[in-house]
């Protein structure tokens, strides 16, 4: 109805046409009512509600409260809030526990802060104590140096002594046969620091030079040019050398002429003191022309001596110079094994003077052992050796007549048979080589015996020398009992038993030593000449010339890659390898025995048995005596060019008796174009105790890659460039090596740190 009325009003009313003013009036009333209603709802209703809510809880009766707080039990009675109550109680308990823990942690933090403060104070006190200890150590070191300076002052080199030109005050011996170093050698020309200068006369400047064997003269001159001791200044020379043989027979000068020529040498000085006359034999076994020549105080070096001519400790018995201008063919030398060869022993020779009587009056072996001795020992030797050969207990070969014309020989000497190649072929099949000394006991050594010895050592036949009076080459510096058997002639009947009783191990050891002696002191002209000089130098107690150090040409390389630690290398269990060096590398102490070593050793060895001096059997590459050898092992050998005094260092003194305060070692690593393998090997050295530096010997002509980054292992790494690719480059005495101990290793070798430390200790 309202809507109908409203419609009617808009349409102007019903019946009487709908008055317009009525429509306007009704619209105004409707808008006013609607606005008033909205005002009441939006303004007054919130005010009333707010007032009611703020005043309703002020009632005194708590039971009439509607919005006021109620007790927990009343709320919990409400079913939908029971779970919330339980959660609130649990959270409240956890909060209480956390609060207790927080208070406990605060208490512990306070205690730790107190400890930190106490530690800081302790550190400060320790720093003060350390500073005081450093001051004490510094003062102690200073005091120690002062005491050492007082007790061991530095020694300056002695003043160079030069004798007068005429040497008028030099005393004369009663006889030239009595010449020894103490009365026939002028030590004033050879100070310890002189370096052993040697002056060599030019044989072509003298008449006898035209009679010399051309090959021997050429070989001698070539050797002289390369020797480190040769000087051209005769005024400072210690020893003067003149070559007089081997001479060619047709143009050989008379003894009186040769004597006059020797006495006319510009530095002969009336008696020839400090002179050495060398007479080398190459093909002749009969030359002993020095026997009838007055040589004064000059020393003689040759292969043939009579007892009235030989002066022990003064003259030198040298080996024959077989390979004059050519190197021996080592490919033709038989191997050292098998130990036993076809023949137990062999001998070929002929002695013209007594051979006929020996063959006519030959007696049986049974007659020999009954005591019916022949005319001389050579006859007994012939009889006994023939009996051994006829018994066929062992396969032996003995021949006392030559199939062809025998070589020339001295009286009572056994002449060589056949050519050299034929003799060598027989010796290659022989375990032992018999060497029968001359029947004349006054002939202490002959060139023929020396030649037999040379050939036996060359092919590995162990020499058996019959005759204890013999003076073998270099007998005062070589222990011949280690390479040969020297048996008196009266024991000829026991020789067979002795040879069969030697074990294979001893045979092989003697053969190896003989091979070493032959290679080092007999084989070439350089070896013979160097050995003669070394004998004289050792006799007068002058140290050897330093071995020339190899200049290390460094290859530039970049370093900076931090080296890692290989767990397999670093796992050493509870073993304490030693401290890692935290200070710059330091060199070994300087070698202080350069001038005393030779004197101490020569005195000890000349007064020991069975041999007067033991040649070193450890360096078969250098034909020199022991003091010229360079051993790089710590504390066991000779090192004339530097290094320490030896020993194992302070850390091992208690167990091993070290005698130096501290010691380090150098790693020498050989490599060839294997950069990755090399880098891995270098990284494995990181953290290695006692390491001084690493010397990488780069054997390849191709340089390392420019972008190669080398590891930083805490010590210097020096890359050395070589002139040629050789495995022997690892043994060169590089001048960058400053320690005695050296670890020579390949780039692909894997050694744990404890293994390296075991070797160093």
From TrEMBL:
It is a single-pass type II membrane protein. It is found in: Endoplasmic reticulum membrane. Residues 665-761 form the Glycosyl transferase domain. Residues 194-502 form the Exostosin GT47 domain. SUPFAM superfamilies: Nucleotide-diphospho-sugar transferases. The chain crosses the membrane at residues 31-53. One of its GO terms (molecular function) is glycosyltransferase activity. Its main location: endoplasmic reticulum. GO terms for cellular component: endoplasmic reticulum membrane. One of its GO terms (biological process) is heparan sulfate proteoglycan biosynthetic process. Keywords: Coiled coil, Disulfide bond, Endoplasmic reticulum, Membrane, Transferase, Transmembrane, Transmembrane helix. Residues 81-150 form a coiled coil. Belongs to the glycosyltransferase 47 family. PANTHER family: ACETYLGLUCOSAMINYLTRANSFERASE (PTHR48261), EXOSTOSIN LIKE GLYCOSYLTRANSFERASE 3 (PTHR48261:SF4). This is EXTL3 protein. It comes from Jacana jacana (Wattled jacana).
């Amino acid at each position: 109805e309202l809507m109908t009325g409203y419609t009617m009003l808009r349409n102007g009313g019903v019946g009487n046409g709908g008055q317009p003013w009525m429509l306007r009036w009704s619209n105004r009333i409707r808008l006013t009512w609607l606005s008033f209603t909205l005002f009441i709802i939006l303004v007054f209703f919130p005010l009333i509600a707010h007032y009611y809510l703020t005043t309703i809880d002020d009632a005194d009766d708590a039971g009439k409260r509607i919005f006021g707080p109620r007790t927990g039990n009343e709320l919990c009675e409400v079913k939908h809030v029971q779970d919330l109550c339980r959660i609130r109680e649990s959270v409240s308990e956890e909060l209480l526990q956390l609060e207790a823990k927080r208070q406990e942690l605060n208490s512990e933090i306070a205690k730790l802060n107190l400890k930190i403060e106490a530690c800081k104070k302790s550190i400060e006190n320790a720093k003060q104590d350390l500073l005081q200890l450093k001051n004490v150590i510094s003062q102690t070191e200073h005091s120690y140096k002062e005491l050492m300076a007082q007790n061991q002052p530095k020694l300056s080199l002695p003043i160079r002594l030069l004798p007068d030109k005429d040497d008028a005050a030099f005393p004369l011996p009663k006889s030239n046969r009595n010449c020894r170093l103490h009365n026939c050698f002028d030590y004033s020309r050879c100070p310890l620091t002189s370096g052993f200068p040697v002056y060599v006369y030019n044989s072509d400047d003298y008449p006898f030079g035209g009679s010399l064997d051309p090959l021997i003269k050429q070989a001698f001159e070539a050797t002289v040019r390369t020797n480190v001791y040769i000087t051209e200044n005769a005024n400072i020379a210690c020893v003067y050398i003149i070559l007089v043989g081997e001479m060619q027979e047709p143009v050989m000068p008379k003894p009186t002429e040769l004597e006059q020529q020797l006495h006319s040498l510009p530095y002969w000085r009336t008696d020839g003191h400090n002179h050495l006359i060398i007479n080398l034999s190459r093909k002749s076994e009969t030359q002993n022309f020095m026997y009838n020549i007055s040589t004064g105080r000059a020393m003689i070096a040759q292969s043939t001596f009579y007892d009235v001519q030989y002066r022990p400790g003064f003259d030198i018995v040298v080996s024959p110079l077989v390979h004059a201008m050519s190197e021996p063919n080592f490919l033709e030398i038989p191997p050292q094994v098998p130990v036993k060869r076809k023949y137990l022993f062999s001998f070929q020779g002929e002695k013209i003077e007594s051979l006929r009587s020996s063959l006519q009056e030959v007696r049986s072996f049974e007659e020999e052992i009954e005591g019916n001795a022949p005319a001389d020992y050579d006859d007994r030797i012939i009889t006994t050796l023939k009996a051994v050969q006829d018994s066929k207990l062992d396969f032996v070969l003995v021949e006392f007549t030559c199939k062809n014309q025998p070589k020339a020989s001295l009286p009572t000497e056994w002449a060589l048979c056949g050519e050299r190649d034929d003799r060598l072929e027989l010796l290659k099949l022989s375990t032992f080589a018999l060497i029968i000394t001359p029947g004349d006991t006054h002939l202490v050594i002959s060139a023929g015996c020396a030649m037999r010895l040379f050939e036996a050592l060359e092919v590995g036949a162990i020499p058996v020398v019959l005759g204890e009076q013999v003076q073998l080459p270099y007998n005062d510096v070589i222990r011949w009992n280690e390479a040969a058997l020297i048996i008196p002639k009266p024991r000829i009947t026991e020789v067979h038993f002795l040879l069969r009783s030697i074990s294979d191990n001893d045979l092989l050891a003697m053969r190896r030593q003989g091979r070493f002696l032959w290679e080092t002191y007999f084989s070439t002209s350089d070896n013979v000449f160097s050995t003669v000089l070394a004998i004289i130098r050792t006799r007068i107690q002058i140290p050897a010339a330093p071995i020339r150090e190899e200049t290390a040409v460094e290859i530039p390389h970049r370093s900076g890659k931090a080296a890692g630690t290989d767990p397999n290398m670093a796992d050493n269990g509870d073993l304490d390898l030693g401290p890692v060096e935290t200070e710059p590398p330091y060199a070994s102490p300087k070698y202080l025995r350069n001038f005393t070593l030779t004197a101490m050793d020569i005195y000890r060895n000349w007064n020991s048995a069975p041999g007067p001096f033991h040649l070193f059997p450890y360096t078969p590459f250098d034909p020199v005596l022991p003091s010229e050898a360079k051993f790089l092992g710590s504390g066991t050998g000779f090192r004339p060019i530097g290094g320490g005094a030896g020993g194992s260092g302070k850390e091992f003194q208690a167990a091993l008796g070290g005698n130096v305060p501290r010691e380090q070692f150098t790693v020498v690593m050989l490599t060839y174009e294997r950069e990755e393998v090399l880098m891995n090997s270098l990284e494995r050295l990181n953290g290695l105790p006692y390491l001084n530096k690493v010397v990488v010997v780069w054997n390849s002509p191709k340089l390392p890659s420019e972008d190669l980054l080398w590891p930083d292992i805490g010590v210097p790494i020096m890359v050395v460039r070589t002139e040629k690719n050789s495995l022997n480059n690892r043994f060169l005495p590089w001048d960058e090596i400053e320690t005695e101990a050296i670890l020579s290793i390949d780039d692909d070798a894997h050694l744990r740190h404890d293994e390296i430390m075991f070797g160093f200790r």
